[in-house]
Design goal:
six-stranded mixed β-sheet, 181 residues
């Protein structure tokens, strides 16, 4: 019985040592080519200012283009190192785009009457971002979409949801402005 215990202990020590060696090797090889954390900005550093043009609206819902353009300008100011400038002659880059779709769908309906309890607004856009100094397209016709839900039973309407969806879409556009990894 002692020899079996000794053999089991040796197998356990061997398996533990082997797994430790494998874990250490994978941790070193898994990080090969990486320099660790970086304090580098997520956004292109050669850009200092952005002109946000009014988005074109190809949908039948009017007013969403104003909400999106306003939300995008505010989001750029708060989430990026860039300054929003209204004049194309004084800025480094121009961001523009088109709203290509504004949709609305029912998420939840009442079983007996079929009335909508919760709805959703979907916004789809195409975005361009051009560096005016070099002529380079930093974003070239990138499709972006976002949505927001609302409930008529909570005194929320399409206008409320379209504003929230425009803010979500602006956030996604700012995420597109980040440098590729």
């Amino acid at each position: 019985m002692n020899t079996e215990n000794g053999r089991a202990n040796r197998h356990f020590v061997f398996a533990s040592s082997l797994s430790l060696i494998i874990t250490v090797c994978f941790s070193f090889f898994g990080c090969a080519g990486m320099d660790g954390y970086s304090g580098e900005s997520l956004f292109p550093e050669d850009v200092r200012s952005v002109c946000v043009e009014m988005f074109d609206n190809r949908s039948f819902r009017r007013g969403v283009e104003y909400e999106l353009t306003d939300a995008l300008a505010k989001r750029i100011e708060s989430d990026t190192p860039y300054k929003v400038i209204s004049s194309q002659q004084r800025c480094d880059t121009v961001i523009s785009g088109q709203i290509v779709g504004v949709g609305e769908s029912v998420l939840v309906s009442e079983r007996e009457t079929g009335r909508a309890l919760e709805k959703e607004v979907q916004l789809q856009a195409v975005v361009n971002w051009e560096n005016l100094r070099t002529g380079e397209l930093l974003i070239d016709n990138a499709p972006v979409s976002a949505s927001a839900s609302y409930s008529p039973w909570q005194n929320q309407g399409f206008d409320y949801a379209s504003t929230v969806a425009a803010n979500n879409l602006a956030q996604r556009i700012v995420e597109l402005m980040e440098k590729q990894w």
